Amino acid sequence: MSNLSITHRQVPIRVDDRDYELECQFISPEKTDRDLVIFLHEGLGSVALWRDWPAQLCEQANCRGLVYSRYGYGASTPRPPEEKWPLGYMHIQAEKALPALLEALDMEHERPILFGHSDGGSIALLYAAMYPSRPKAIAVAAPHIFVEDVTITSIEQAREAYLNTDLPQRFSRYHQNPDSAFWGWNDIWLNPEFKYWNIEAYLPKIQCPVLAIQGKNDEYGTLAQIQGIQRIVSHAELCIIDDCRHSPHKDQPEVLNQALVAFIQKLNETLPTNP
């Protein structure tokens, strides 16, 4: 990226009487008069797996960025093998972990724009519902608001690939402990009780602007996910992308960037920027 400063550091946080370190990447942190975009990764994501897409977006939108790996992912503190994610693991990330990180960074008074992908999109929705006045806006790509059969089928296929291919070795490029990341996510989604997971009851509490994005060919969910968001959050805008699977930032980055830049510009025509 031509005009960007990018730094990394480990940030200690405390959640439920446990101490963790989270891997954080800061994009153009000196632009304190510009919007802050916080990137929330998918269920198998990390800082490294985003590659340079967050920096591309920040450059095009002239924003600051905070990219971080959640507990158990990337170079953050790994999950012990015996620890299983609870059914409400995304609720915990929204209610406790993200606020703890912002407090540790002295950013608790910011009004960020959240961009969440997949699990990260669900976390962004929950955060905006639990703390309605905190985010300036949220954009969610391929979020989950309930569990679909197509999602479970794809996650079962991912399990077979992890057990029978070189997927663990490939994951080692993006996660300090690939088993920590993969099995934490895979085990909870394939827990029979998880099929009843549903966050639709939280959505009416969302007050901030919402952009809900999904690829037409998403193998992890149908358009019922983002259409469900708009049904409940009437002011939500939809962006449906052709020739796109589960990861718009990989499959159609130019289309996604155009939509996000327009969304951010529209926000700043009607809302004040961060002081």
Quick tags:
37% helix; 275 residues; Rossmann fold; alpha/beta; 8 strands; 9 helices
Would you write up a description of this structure?
- With 275 residues, this protein is α/β, with parallel strands linked by helices.
- It has one domain (6-269): Rossmann fold, CATH 3.40.50.
- The chain has nine helices and eight strands.
- An eight-stranded mixed sheet has the order 1-2-4-3-5-6-7-8, with helices on both faces.
- The mean pLDDT is 96.
CATH superfamily: Alpha/Beta hydrolase fold, catalytic domain
Number of helices: 9
Termini Cα gap: 26 Å
Element order: H for helix, E for strand: EEEHEHEHEHHHEHEHH
What characterizes the major β-sheet? 8 strands, mixed
Gyration radius, rounded: 17 Å
Assign the CATH class. Alpha Beta
Number of strands: 8
Helical coverage, percent range: 25-40%
Query: What ranges have pLDDT less than 50 throughout 5 or more consecutive residues?
Result: none
Protein structure class: alpha/beta
Shape: globular
CATH A-level architecture: 3-Layer(aba) Sandwich
Summarize the structure.
The chain has 275 residues and is α/β, with parallel strands linked by helices. The chain is 37% helix and 19% strand.
